[in-house]
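Hi all, long-time lurker, first post. I run a small reading group and we've been trying to get comfortable going from sequence to structure in the token notation. Rather than ask abstract questions, I figured I'd post a concrete chain and ask someone more experienced to write out its structure so we can walk through it together at our next meeting. Sequence below, copied exactly:
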Amino acid sequence: MKDNTIKIVDEVNIFDGSFDPLTELIRKGARDLIAGAVEAELQVLLDGFSNVKTLDGRAGVVRNGFQPTREILTSVGSVKVRIPKVRSRTGDPVTFRSVLVPPYLRKARSLEAAIPWLYLKGVSSGEMGDALKVLVGDEAAGLSPAVVSRLKTKWAGEYDVWCKQDLTSDEFVYIWVDGIHSGLRTPAVDRIDGNSDKLCCLVVIGVTSAGEKRFLAVTDGDRESKQSWKQVLVDLKSRGMNVPKLAVGDGAMGFWAAADEIMPEMKHQRCWVHKTCNIMNYLPKSLEGKAKVMLKEIYMSPTVDHADKAFEQFVKTFEAKYPKAIVCLQKDRDELLAFYSFPAQHWQSIRTTNPIESSFATIRHRTKRSKGCLSKSTMLHMIYKLAMTAENNWNRLKGFNQLPEVAKGVTFINGEHPNQQQETMINQTAA
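-- Answer (accepted) --
Happy to help. Here is the structure in token form:
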């Protein structure tokens, strides 16, 4: 079977010091978007000739390989593009000319600004033309609504299939959960009470026993309520997901109440970044520097005993004048120190919700500057495209060889395996 995928090959020198993960993320987004858009353009052309047949009933216009490879210079490196060709079997001349990548295009506009904009705003058919102008200039104005519609339908279809993926083949050890709040608002007509409200996307990322990180859920929620998170967890279980050993998230969510009901055996870890920010809200700015250093002493301690001492020192220092800050810290004490029961190699990853925060930094930045209303489906498809691009660039979890032990239910002692802990104690006694 012939491969009809649009061929786009990237070139980047990872040894010249110019390579970085963000640039790679942008390049991957550019590659996928260009490929999908050109394919949609081609399909619209073929659909227009679907009724043209040869005398023996075959299609009158068909694919016919690719044009010679062209290199397009972009601000994130060169991209080699091969545009497909078509052939007419009826004798009438038919050619395919991409609006997105016209014949003589050799240099694209700034992709650093274009790609996030294309994903976050370009999913709207009314704005796709303006978005593509950033990439290729005024030539994109001719991109037909049919092409835009086909792209949106394709993304929606991909999202629907992804939401139903079977999860029974993998064993998930950790999950990170968070609610991504957008500056975009739902139209009032979409709500029962007739009021507009800010959109919230509930996100779950999991890591398998093999160390591979994957998005498990990207769905809309009602202000991170217990009921919304309960529906997410019920859906994940119905798709075959096991109960992870640990969930990492912010304390201000309905997730924890839902988790206690749906997955009561799963342990909880509060995000230290969120907790630090919450505590700072109760302290004057003049003390923020000192307080952050003391909080870091807690979660960077080598053992839970050292962490307890640092914890008490923080309480002793601020309790008299700033009791609300201490209440904010103490109410989640056990959940903040849960990571000590897991491998030390994983501590950096499971102390915070950074896997989600870093993946959605772009969307948080972009949606704060977006105005107007978008539908829930448009927002979800847009975030889904960003999520899949980010996922393709993830590395396995550091210390992944320890994950099978965690999956078996082994409780680590100050980050060490019980067997390793015993050996350490025997050696210390012998010495």
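A couple of things your group might point at:
The radius of gyration is 26 Å.
Residues 21 and 393 are 8 Å apart (CA to CA).
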